[in-house]
Amino acid sequence: MVKKVYLIGMGPGNLKYLTLEAVDLIKRLPLFLIPLKSSKKTYLTEKRKEILYKIRKDQNFKIVEIPFPERKRSFQYKEAVISWRRKKAEILIKVLQKESTEEAGFIVWGDPSIYDGHIEIFKDVQKQIPIEFEIIPGISAFQILSAKHKIPLTKIAGSLLFTTPRGLKKFSEIKENTVVFLDNYESYRKFNQEDLKIYWGAYLGTEKEVLLSGRLSEIKEKIIELRRKLRKENGWIMEIYFLLPEDKIKDEE
Ligand SMILES: C[S@@+](CC[C@H](N)C(=O)[O-])C[C@H]1O[C@@H](n2cnc3c(N)ncnc32)[C@H](O)[C@@H]1O
Fold first, then answer.
1. 1 CA to middle of ligand 1, Å?
2. 239 lines ligand 1 (CB under 6 A)
3. Which CATH architecture has domain 142-252?
4. Among 69-78, 99-108, 110-119, 180-189, where is mean pLDDT lowest?
């Protein structure tokens, strides 16, 4: 049975974004657990494997793909996510009990602490079987986006908000710098503030990377048109953006 799991943040899809700590672990661990889900999701699984094979030339290791179920759509969003995570914990426990190596790596997209449920899942696993886990931080998608656009995210005495479309729904106006993950709904279209800038990026760190930035009111339609085209061409899209109210930008300029 596996006794220790390393949750390894692999960055957002490119080998060059792995930390040395992640690389050292990948070089020595005997077993890697990779979540297997349903176009985009296959890509995410394959990318994880590609990174393992690039670092680990000896092939003397095992990969176990874990068939996690899709989340059931529900109006009770939080409850649905909690029950989905519980199911994932049950599946993981079976895999961990079956495998014979003492240690394993679990490869997580970006950083494990940002919009990712695996820390909670492993805490749940730990309540049920004796196992240790350690977190290896990774570069998150938002860091690549700020680097590519060459912008600081925090301003003097300012705050930074991380959210998703569910969080954005609560605001009629953006007052603080905001990072938006997981938006499949073009939620920025509802903001008509003249002072708002958007910094948008898709497929960051990959060969398909695209960046756009400007005043939201001026480039909204361009982003919408582009993302729909890319989504159609590729079958999936992975995008992230910042909404920055302009008075804060002026402070800095
Ligand atoms: C489930 S969250 C995981 C975030 C991850 N833990 C991180 O730290 O970046 C997936 C979302 O992260 C963002 N994302 C992750 N990788 C990305 C990339 N390479 N390009 C653009 N957005 C990305 C997208 O908003 C995507 O829908």
1. 32
2. yes
3. 2-Layer Sandwich (3.30)
4. 69-78
Q: Tokens standing for 12?
A: 């957002």
Q: Which residue among 81, 236, 240, 242 has the greatest number of ligand 1 atoms within 8 angstroms of its CB, and so is best to mutate?
A: 240
In CATH, the number for domain 4-139 is 3.40.1010.10
Q: Which of 83, 156, 170 is nearest to 124 (CA)?
A: 83
User: Token digits for 41?
Assistant: 């999701």
State pLDDT tens for residues 162-174.
999 999 999 999 9
Q: Domain ranges for the chain, please list them.
A: 4-139, 142-252
Q: In this structure, are residues 180 and 240 in contact, taking their beta carbons and an 8 Å threshold?
A: yes
- pLDDT of res. 102: 97
Atom of ligand 1 nearest to the CA of 111: 8
